[in-house]
Amino acid sequence: MTASARPDARRNASPYLHGRETAAVARVLEGGQYGHTDVTEEFEWRIADFLGVPEAVAVASGTAALHTALLAAGIGPGHEVIVPSMTFCATVQAILAVGAAPHFVDIDPVTLCVSDHLVMDAVTDRTAAVMPVLFGGRPVDLSAVQEELDERGVAVIEDAAHAFGSRHATRRVGASGALTCFSFGPIKNLTCGQGGMVIPRTPAEADMIRRLRILGVVQSQGERANTTSYRVEGFGLRYQLSAINAAIGLVQLDGFQVAEDTRRHLWRTYRDALAPLDGVTLVDVDVDHAVPHLCQVRVPHRDKVFADLRGRDIGVGVHYPPNHLQPAFAAWQRSLSATERAGGEILSLPFHQHLSETDIDLVVTALEQALKSVGGL
Ligand SMILES: *Cc1c(COP(=O)(O)O)cnc(C)c1O
């Protein structure tokens, strides 16, 4: 038995608090208003300002962001939505939630993301939307085929749950003109505890998402105080972002530059430490543009390496088992060779802002030992 790993290397992912979150939450609790309040609205405009977009609409989770974005884009029964199988199951569940059908597509084996030709090869007359997943924080650029997608009436809805802070060439993800969805869940680049944000393309889309997130009720705060009733003008869900969560997000946003720099530094530290290891392929990220969300490698005998590392108390994970092979999505199964191959090789090393360079050395040494012991080197 090797000595058990340092505590931070035991976790694959972990929220990182900048220190003032507890006080910010306490202020909201003492203030007595916990729902969607001016704290939520401050968080919205601060995010819009950070990204350089006119407005941002806060919702209760990344899944709620995807769900309301699909509804706002008019996606529903009879529609097909092109989506990579290599994503978190939430992307697919959001498509099912609006009654549409997922059309699973393969990924580029190097980026683990869709590319413009993989998307265009899958477009049919029933395609109503495409959902690129910005896997690991990598921006996905569909600008070369944007005009063709527009002509065919195909909406682009970005699942940017991994990619808060990443940049396309110059603009932040969210500011490229696509309908963009962020998650601020516990382990994302920025966390609210639980939360999400939609970057709408038009004011009408923003209004629709605002109505959807509050049970279809349309009324300003002022109106609500002054009348005895309220108007339900359409379908809606309980999807607001509470002030408690928004207060956490505001502190996280203040500290985001530190988060961004730390994630890039840790990722480069891994890259340099992994370089001498034979048999290990780092899933590359252009960290000059992307804020890395994961540190993934591809290894032979992945399941054995995974078990061996877990035995050494190293918090490895797999992002993700392909969705087209999940029982719930069997009706839309198809053969996706690059996804299936990646699905059997990818391994996510511990990656979060509590890690030190010593932790990373320990993880890489353990990976080398694991590969030797399973015969992979
Ligand atoms: C986390 C995540 C989501 C869902 O976000 P939640 O805030 O957990 O609802 C969607 N897609 C991807 C790729 C994610 O990683």
From TrEMBL:
Annotated TM spans: none
Cofactor: pyridoxal 5'-phosphate
CDD domains, per database record: AHBA_syn
Keyword annotations from UniProtKB, A to Z: Aminotransferase, Pyridoxal phosphate, Transferase
Modification sites for N6-(pyridoxal phosphate)lysine: K188
Listed GO biological process terms: polysaccharide biosynthetic process
InterPro entries: DegT/StrS_aminotransferase, PyrdxlP-dep_Trfase, PyrdxlP-dep_Trfase_major, PyrdxlP-dep_Trfase_small
Family in the record: Belongs to the DegT/DnrJ/EryC1 family. L-glutamine:2-deoxy-scyllo-inosose/scyllo-inosose aminotransferase subfamily.
Gene Ontology molecular function, alphabetical: pyridoxal phosphate binding; transaminase activity
PANTHER family found in the cross-reference section: DTDP-4-AMINO-4,6-DIDEOXYGALACTOSE TRANSAMINASE (PTHR30244:SF34), TRANSAMINASE (PTHR30244)
Domain of life: Bacteria
SUPFAM superfamilies: PLP-dependent transferases (SSF53383)
Protein name in the entry: DegT/DnrJ/EryC1/StrS family aminotransferase
Name of a matching Pfam family: DegT_DnrJ_EryC1
Active-site residues annotated for this sequence: K188 (proton acceptor)
